Prior knowledge:
Blueprint: H1 2-21, H2 27-41, H3 45-48, H4 50-60, H5 72-83, H6 90-99, H7 102-127, E1 130-131, E2 137-138, H8 141-148, H9 152-189, H10 193-208, H11 211-240, H12 245-258, H13 271-286, H14 292-297, H15 305-333, H16 344-356, H17 358-392, H18 397-413, H19 417-440, H20 442-455, H21 463-472
Antiparallel strand pairs: 1-2
Helix pairs in contact: 1-19, 2-7, 2-19, 4-15, 5-11, 5-15, 5-17, 6-13, 6-16, 7-8, 7-12, 7-13, 7-15, 8-9, 9-10, 9-17, 9-18, 9-19, 10-17, 10-18, 11-15, 11-16, 11-17, 15-16, 16-17, 17-18
GO molecular function: amino acid:sodium symporter activity
Membrane topology: Multi-pass membrane protein
Subcellular location: Cell membrane
Amino acid sequence: MQDVSFAESLQNNLDKIDQFIWSQWLLIPLLLLTGLWLTIRLGGVQFRKLFVALRHGLIDRDDEGGDGDITQYQALTTALAATVGVGNIVGVATAISIGGPGALFWMWITGLVGMASKYSEAFLGVRFRVADSKGNVSGGPQRYLSRGIPGGLGTFLAWFFTIAAIIASFGIGNLTQGNAVAAGLENTFDVSPTVTGAVMFVLVGAVLLGGIGSIGKVTSAFVPLMILIYIGGGIVVLALHAGDIPNALGLIFNDAFSGTSATGGFVGSGIMLAMQMGVARGIFSNESGMGSAAIAAAAAKTTHPVRQGLVSMTQTFIDTIIVVTMTGLVIVTTGVWDTGEENAANMTAQAFSKGIGSEWGGTIVSLSIVFFAFSTILGWSYYGERNAERAFGSWASLPYRMLFTCVVFVGATTEIGLAWTFADIANGLMALPNLVGLLILSGLIARETKAYLDFDPTLRARPEDVEKFLVDTKNPWRSTL
Length: 481
């Protein structure tokens, strides 16, 4: 009885911390205003250069002549692997089940302004990256906060981020994802969590042995396929319910600014709750402002930070504007959104089942959760490893990979209710120092972005031309490390 009381007390205290971090007094305004400020400083770069960025990342794929560990496309898919996860399926359903359909609108806003944040942190990740003792590239907030912001403030912010990122890698990037894979396979195919945990232990360990090169190759192969399968299923559902889409969109926009009345199993929500859930689940899904994707961006072969920043920016567009939108529209259009918060975990599966039949719909969602969660584990293993190296030195790489692989088995075979709250808190603690750093460094980001895009607006400059531009403008960054 004492243990139960302690667990309940711990959960209650963590919930209070989580609610404060993600409240309208802290992260919600900081995330939105930072993204808005960067959007203004960068002249709406996410809108002006979206198609150029998509072409460069998805069609060109490789920036010839650039130094780094993986291609731009592999850096993009590694970041997508880490972000397109359970949050895109269960997280969206949770936001709508608590905040109402209007929460989806605030997820869109978070994504749109978050693209400027994602561009900025990826730009800085490449701009201030370094070569480690093994010759591999290392970058991200743990590097650019201390290198870009002189004095004790930069050092403090960098260490704050480093510690939070290591914790988060075992929460959002491991325990919760491993549990989601095990639950999905058990519910759909009656596979024992122990078997799932053992298989994942072997698969994750095998991939991590090869480092970022191996992770990049694996994610570039199956991340696009898993997204296309999920989107394809969603398109079929929406096509079969095309007549309900206008009403669903009207409900989303109306409830975003007026709140949602109680209906069915839904208890009702106000504007602030819709905004709070939309922003919190949005950042959980696309990670814009958290700084995590900058770690993958820093490893990319690129001739200039602006080029990789634009490629990385498309990750938020794909994650939120495409995948999250698909989940949200399917839930609202099929009318299952008001079945109650307690049904959030199964809400997306019910929506797909109602749309295209219980067998196909449930299978698509279950397999999507499995693949999305597994890919998130791979992406976050690299994020955590880089921060472990930053904190303890390069020797920490192998022990971290071994511990991370073992925790995957724990997540798959253990009830981890507290882990979800820890993951939310760690996400917020990562975002805080990174957002402060983005605001401080926004002038540098804006100046160097404008200078480069004036020189190469379509990202087609040859490596030798880019190098000449850097020399002529006396830019301290070089493609060689």
